[in-house]
Amino acid sequence: MIAVISMVFAVQLDAEMVPCPLGEGQVKVYHRISENAVGGYDSDFANYGSGGQWREYAIATCMPTLLTLYGSDMALPVPEGKKAAVQAALSRSVAALPNREDPQLWERYGIAAAVYEALGKDEMFLGNLWMQASWTARDAAVGMYNGLSGPQTARKLLDGGLEELKKNLSVADRKNVLYNLARVAQRGGWSSERDGYLANFEALGLDSREQTALKRFRELSQTIEPELQEKALAQYRAALRKGELGEEEGRVRYLCAELARRLGRFPEAKIDFQAVVAGKAPEELKELSRFFLGLGR
Predict the structure, then answer these.
(1) For residue range 234-274, what is the model confidence (pLDDT) as tens digits?
(2) Any bridge partners for residue 60, and if so which?
(3) Phi, psi of 30 (to 5 degrees)
(4) Selection from 280, 267, 282 nearest residue 292 by Cα
(5) b/e map 234-266, b = 16+ CB within 10 Å
(6) Beta 26-34 vs 12-19: how paired, if at all?
(7) Are 252 and 265 in contact (CB under 8 A)?
(8) Which of 224, 236, 130, 212 is nearest to 186 (CA)?
(9) Mean pLDDT of 131-158
(10) Using one digit for the tens of pLDDT, what is the confidence trace for 55-100?
(11) What is the distance between the alpha carbons of residues 6 and 150, in angstroms, rounded to a whole number?
């Protein structure tokens, strides 16, 4: 039986209604007061609060148009000269939604990306936005694994899990271990290991609830999150080509490496990890790059 992931609401929020900057109506905008951040972090800088993620509330969506922006931008007027471009981008994004009546959180981030691009935001801004979107898909797939602080911790948990699987476990316990190892592998960005654990989980025979969970996990981790990561990577690569990042260059190059690794393209990632180690990047990024270069996966 799959362990239920419980989330006690702990992000402290305030909210207000503001007029939509395009069209009629009002939208609820959230403001973060505080956040419990003991849920750890991933190697691509995704951070986790133990009682809810701020990224779930950071964007706001006007109804019925589905205009989506960061809440902090909802009070700003859309420049007159950009209204036509924004409306066109919004219309294209909404038309592409599978379910216009109930868009998923990452789909709302996608609408925001189209609107911000029409507003003239640069590649770094858009890359960060798509990265946030990818994290929301990961949230939906695996939830928060308390205390999972970085890839080294994830690796230790995965190695410990292999020892656990050597024990004479009941089928229910073996399922639980395999499913949670898949969650850790997803958080750590080791997609082939994740898929192996999920295949072994499936081979044990699943009830309808487990089959539903597995199908959802695979859709989110194998299709939806990678598509969002590809969009983030394209924007970060474009930002690097511009060559105007200054001190941010090391961080962006690391993110390009990390996204390529998570997408299963380690030879591509290796080039950027090596550039981070050899370049002017913060020491913590060099350390992470060395870790992945030494791990070789």
Answers:
(1) 999 999 999 889 889 999 999 999 999 999 999 999 999 99
(2) 69
(3) -100, 150
(4) 267
(5) bbbbebbeeeebeeebbbbbbbbbbbbbbbeeb
(6) antiparallel
(7) no
(8) 224
(9) 93
(10) 999 999 999 999 999 999 999 999 999 999 999 999 999 999 999 9
(11) 21
66: left (phi over 0), alpha (psi -120 to 50) or beta: left
Three-state secondary structure call for residue 38? coil
Separation between Cα atoms, residue 110 and residue 199, nearest integer Å: 31
* Alpha carbon distance 297, 214 (integer Å): 24
Per-residue tokens: 48: 């986790």
Question: Would you state the structure tokens that stand for residue 67, as one six-digit string?
Answer: 């205009």
Closest residue by Cα to residue 42 from 202, 225, 199, 177:
225
Cα dihedral 164, 165, 169, 171 in deg (nearest 10): 140
> Any idea where the domains of the chain sit in the sequence?
12-142, 245-297
Token pair of 39 as six digits: 């849920």
Tell me, what DSSP letter sits at residue 13?
Answer: E
Residues in the chain, overall count: 297
Tell me how far apart the alpha carbons of residues 183 and 120 are, in angstroms, rounded to a whole number. Answer: 37
pLDDT value of residue 13: 86
Backbone angles phi, psi at 46, to 5 degrees: -60, 125
Joined together, the tokens standing for residue 15 give: 């909210």
